[in-house]
C-alpha cells in the first residue's frame, strides 16, 4: 500500500490543536501500559473516553469549520496511522514483557523436564517443529529403532507389514510466539539469521533438556522444521529468505546437534497439511495402522474419520472417499512401504480465522470515507453490544468485489488510504444473523459458477471442487475438528460431539450479549484480547461447516484438541510419515546396535552389518530398499 504523506507542519498543527481541545494525549493503544500502571479495564475506559470526546469535537468541527477539507482529512488519516504504529510498538513491548515472565516459567519447566524427561532408554527419537501463523511449537517423539534383527522382520519390512509409529507426551512439547513469518520484515541477511537463531534457541534448549541423557545419539535424531499457512501468505522471495536463514542456522552443528539436512526445513503445501492432519487423527484413533500394512491400495478399511483444521491463516479438510470417486484434489498417502490411501484433501489459504477477521475488517470499511471510518465509526454486528475496536488492514477490493493487495480504486490511490478504522456496535447486543451473513460472504461462493458447471454442483466454496461428504458407514465415521474449531466449541461450552444445529443455537446465544456479559461468559477460557471477536469466531465456524463444506443441521462433528492423551494436529501425521522414510538397519539377533549416526546416516558399531551372506537372497531386495534416497519426499 502506498502512503501519501502531508507536510509535517500541517500534521503537527492539526494534532496539536486536537490535543488542546480534547485535553489529553492520544492513547497509545487499547492495551497501552505507558508510564502509568493501569488495568486493562481502566485503559479501555480511558480510550473510550478519548474516542468519545474526539468524535464529538470532530463532528462539531465539521459543522463549523469544514473538517472535510483535504488537508485536515489527510491529517486525520496520518494521525490514525501513527496511532496504529504506536499501538503495534506498545503491543510488541507488552510481548517482550510477557516473554521475560515466560522465560522464568520456561527455566522452571526446563529444570523439571531435565530431571525427569520420561523417555525410554532403548528408543530412537525425532523432533517436529510446527511453524504456524501465530506461533511455533516443538514436539519430541520417540519410536522403536529402525533395526531388523532376523529374516522374518526383513520380509515384513519389504512387504510393507512393518512400520514405525511415533509416540509423545504433552510435556515433550514447547511453544513460543510470534509466528515465523513475522521475520520477513527483516531485510538484512545477517540480522535475519541472528533473529531466527535467537527465536529458536529456547526451543532447542528444551529439546536438549528432554534428550540430554542420549547426548551421544543426538546426531541420529532428525529434526524437521515445517512451516504452514503464515509462511504461505508471504511473497516467494520473502518465503525463500526466511527459510534459507532457517537452514543456515540449523546447519550449524553447535546450534543444532541433531540430524539436519536443508530439505528438513521447508514450507509445506496446504494439501500436505491437510493430509497429515487426516493421518494424525486416524493414527491416534487407531484406524490407520492395520489398514496401512501390506501392499497395494486401501479399499475396504476399518472406519476412518475425516479431519477439519481451522488455523490462523488457512483451513483444511481431508477425508477417505469409500467409492474412490474423486475427480480433483486427490492425494495419495503412503506410510513407508505400506498401502496407498486415496484421499480427498484441500487447503484454503487466507480462510483461517485470523485471515478471515482481517478480510472482514476490510470488507466493512470498503468504500467508506475518512469521516465514516475514523470519526463516525463503522458498524460491526459481530462485536458485542457497546464494543469499540480500532483496526488496521492492508487489504483493498477490486471493482468486482474481490480482495487485492493493491489499491485499485482511484480515490484510494490518490488519498493514500491507510486502511485504519474504528469498528463499533452501538446496540445493546451483537447480531448472529448479520454476522453469519458477513461470514458466509467471506467464503466467496459466488466463485462456484464454473465449478458447479464442470463438476455438476460437487463444490464447496471459493470455486473449489469437493465430492459430497461421505455418509457415516462401516468404512467412514464422522469428522474430527481441531485447532480454532476446538476453541470455538470450548468458548461456547459445547459437548465435544455436537450437531450443526447445536453449534448454531450456541452461537446465537453468545452473539446476543453485551460487552460485559460476554466477558463474564468467557471467563478464563478465552484470552482477553479475543473476547470481543468470539461472536465472529462462532459465526465463521458455523458458516464454514454448513455453507462451506456442506454439513447439514443434523450432522455431528467432534471438536477436540486431545485424543487418547495426544495432541491432535498435522504434526503427528507428518512425523509418522517422516520416520517411515528413514532407512532400516539390519543386525543379527544379539548384535549391539549403536544409534549414533553421522549426518550422512552412517551406522556405527563393529557388530552392525547391513545384510549377512546367510540372507543373501533377501539381502539384494532389502539393500535396494535400505538405500532409497532420503530425498524422495513425495507422498505418492
From TrEMBL:
The chain crosses the membrane at residues 609-627. GO terms for molecular function: ATP binding; nucleoside diphosphate phosphatase activity. ATP binds at residues 312-316. The active site is at 273 (proton acceptor). It comes from the Eukaryota. Residues 25-47 are annotated as: Disordered. GO terms for biological process: nucleoside diphosphate catabolic process. Gene3D superfamilies: 3.30.420.40, Exopolyphosphatase. Domain 2. Pfam families: GDA1_CD39. Keywords: ATP-binding, Hydrolase, Membrane, Nucleotide-binding, Transmembrane, Transmembrane helix. The keyword Transmembrane helix applies. GO terms for cellular component: membrane. Belongs to the GDA1/CD39 NTPase family. This is Uncharacterized protein. It comes from Grammatophora oceanica.
Amino acid at each position: 500500500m502506498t502512503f501519501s504523506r502531508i507536510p509535517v507542519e500541517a500534521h503537527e498543527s492539526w494534532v496539536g490543536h486536537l490535543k488542546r481541545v480534547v485535553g489529553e494525549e492520544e492513547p497509545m493503544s487499547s492495551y497501552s501500559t505507558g508510564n502509568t500502571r493501569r488495568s486493562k479495564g481502566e485503559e479501555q475506559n480511558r480510550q473510550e473516553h478519548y474516542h468519545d470526546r474526539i468524535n464529538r469535537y470532530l463532528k462539531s468541527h465539521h459543522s463549523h469549520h469544514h473538517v472535510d477539507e483535504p488537508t485536515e482529512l489527510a491529517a486525520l488519516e496520518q494521525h490514525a496511522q501513527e496511532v496504529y504504529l504506536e499501538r503495534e510498538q506498545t503491543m510488541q513491548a507488552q510481548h517482550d514483557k510477557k516473554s521475560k515472565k515466560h522465560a522464568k516459567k520456561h527455566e522452571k519447566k526446563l529444570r523439571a523436564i531435565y530431571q525427569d524427561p520420561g523417555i525410554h532408554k532403548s528408543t530412537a527419537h525425532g523432533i517436529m517443529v510446527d511453524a504456524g501463523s501465530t506461533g511455533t511449537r516443538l514436539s519430541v517423539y520417540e519410536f522403536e529403532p529402525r533395526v531388523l534383527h532376523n529374516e522374518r522382520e526383513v520380509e515384513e519390512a519389504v512387504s510393507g507389514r512393518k512400520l514405525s509409529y511415533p509416540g509423545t507426551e504433552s510435556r515433550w512439547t514447547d511453544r513460543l510466539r510470534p509466528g515465523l513469518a513475522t521475520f520477513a520484515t527483516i531485510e538484512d541477511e545477517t540480522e535475519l539469521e541472528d533473529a531466527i537463531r535467537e527465536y529458536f534457541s529456547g526451543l532447542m534448549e528444551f529439546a536438549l533438556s528432554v534428550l540430554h541423557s542420549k547426548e551421544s545419539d543426538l546426531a541420529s535424531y532428525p529434526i524437521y522444521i515445517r512451516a504452514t499457512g503464515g509462511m504461505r501468505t508471504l511473497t516467494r522471495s520473502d518465503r525463500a529468505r526466511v527459510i534459507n536463514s532457517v537452514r543456515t542456522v540449523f546447519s550449524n552443528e553447535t546450534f543444532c546437534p541433531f540430524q539436519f539436512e536443508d530439505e528438513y526445513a521447508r514450507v509445506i503445501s496446504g494439501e500436505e497439511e491437510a493430509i497429515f492432519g487426516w493421518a494424525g487423527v486416524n493414527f491416534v484413533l487407531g484406524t490407520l495402522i492395520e489398514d496401512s500394512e501390506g501392499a497395494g491400495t486401501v479399499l475396504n478399511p476399518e472406519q476412518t474419520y475425516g479431519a477439519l483444521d481451522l488455523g490462523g491463516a488457512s483451513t483444511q479438510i481431508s477425508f477417505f472417499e469409500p467409492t474412490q470417486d474423486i475427480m480433483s484434489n486427490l492425494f495419495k498417502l503412503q506410510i513407508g512401504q505400506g498401502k496407498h490411501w486415496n484421499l480427498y484433501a484441500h487447503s484454503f489459504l487466507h480462510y483461517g480465522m485470523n485471515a478471515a477477521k482481517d478480510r472482514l475488517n476490510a470488507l466493512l470499511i470498503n468504500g467508506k470515507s475518512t469521516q465514516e471510518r475514523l470519526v463516525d465509526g463503522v458498524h460491526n454486528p459481530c462485536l458485542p453490544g457497546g464494543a469499540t475496536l480500532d483496526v488496521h488492514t492492508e487489504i483493498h477490493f477490486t471493482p468486482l468485489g474481490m480482495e487485492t493487495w493493491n489499491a485499485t480504486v482511484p480515490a484510494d490511490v490518490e488519498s493514500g488510504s491507510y486502511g485504519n478504522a474504528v469498528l463499533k456496535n452501538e446496540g445493546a447486543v451483537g447480531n448472529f444473523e448479520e454476522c453469519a451473513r458477513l461470514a458466509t460472504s467471506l467464503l466467496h461462493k459466488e466463485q462456484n459458477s464454473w465449478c458447479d458447471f464442470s463438476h455438476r454442483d460437487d463444490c464447496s466454496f471459493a470455486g473449489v471442487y469437493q465430492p459430497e461428504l461421505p455418509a457415516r458407514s462401516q468404512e467412514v465415521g464422522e469428522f474430527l475438528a481441531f485447532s480454532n474449531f476446538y476453541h470455538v466449541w470450548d468458548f461456547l461450552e459445547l459437548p465435544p460431539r455436537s450437531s450443526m444445529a447445536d453449534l448454531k443455537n450456541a452461537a446465537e446465544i453468545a452473539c446476543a450479549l453485551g460487552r460485559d456479559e460476554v466477558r463474564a461468559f468467557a471467563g478464563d477460557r478465552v484470552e482477553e484480547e479475543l473476547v470481543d471477536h468470539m461472536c465472529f469466531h462462532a459465526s465463521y465456524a458455523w458458516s464454514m461447516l454448513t455453507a462451506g463444506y456442506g454439513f447439514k443441521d443434523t450432522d455431528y462433528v467432534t471438536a477436540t484438541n486431545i485424543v487418547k492423551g495426544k495432541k491432535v494436529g498435522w504434526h503427528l501425521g507428518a512425523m509418522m510419515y517422516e520416520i517411515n522414510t528413514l532407512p532400516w538397519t539390519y543386525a543379527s539377533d544379539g548384535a549391539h546396535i549403536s544409534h549414533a549416526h553421522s549426518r550422512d546416516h552412517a551406522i556405527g558399531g563393529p557388530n552392525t552389518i547391513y545384510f549377512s551372506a546367510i540372507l543373501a537372497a533377501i539381502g539384494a531386495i532389502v539393500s535396494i530398499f535400505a538405500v532409497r534416497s532420503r530425498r524422495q519426499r513425495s507422498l505418492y
